[in-house]
Amino acid sequence: MKYIIGLGNIGLEYDKTRHNIGFMALDAFAAAHNAAFVPSKQFATIAKLAINGEQVVLVKPTTYMNDSGKAVRAIIDYYGGDVNTDVMVLVDDMDLPFGKLRFRAKGSAGGHNGLKSIIAHTGSQTFLRLKFGLGHPDHEQQAVIHYVLGKFSRAETEDVNHMLDHSTMAIEEWIQGNGVSELSNKYNG
Questions:
Q1: What is the DSSP letter of 105?
Q2: Residue 113 is labelled as binding a ligand
Q3: Is the pTM of this model over 0.90?
């Protein structure tokens, strides 16, 4: 079984914001497979599907970003699996140039509270991440918060759609067994 975890915040005020691109990518992947999300008791909404015989669970934590690990831990405990081999986390990254994708097989949270929570709840830093480049605003804390919780501009829409299209293809290739090196060579910008 494979798990695709999209990170984001629940609520209309966060819909389509930069910090929610993990949710947006998961929604794009679900739409490509006609999968619908339903509430689960594991602190998330989930969609289940099968791709080439592989069971796949799409997960959107309902805990808010800073406690995403609670949902990841609960899902893995309930359905089984290994965070190090069966999980891909879709996450925003301000340190990547806007519009770029990057696979990362391990590492620290890099200041991202959603990743910090997953690391804390699973005890692992070696789960796969697909990072979505947001670029970085002014380094003042308020500017950063306003930026990540802001919506994408019309000028950014084409690049966002490009990232979402490529992420859907990349997720499918991972599910089909392509390794991190191959995916990185093909998709990392």
A1: S
A2: yes
A3: yes
Within 8 A by CB and 6+ apart from 163, the residues are 21, 25, 99, 100, 101, 132, 133
What is the pLDDT confidence band of residue 139, given thresholds at 50, 70 and 90? low
Both tokens of 15, joined, read 């819909």
Q: Which residues are catalytic?
A: 19
Which residues neighbour 17 within 8 Å (Cβ) at sequence distance 6 or greater? 9, 148, 149, 150, 151, 152
In the chain, what is the greatest distance between 2 CA atoms, to the nearest angstrom?
Answer: 48
Report pLDDT digits (tens) over 94-114. Answer: 999 999 999 999 999 988 999
Residue 64 assigned to a binding site: yes
If one counts every other C-beta atom within 10 angstroms of the C-beta of residue 77, the result is 10
Q: How confident is the model over 31-50, as a mean pLDDT?
A: 97
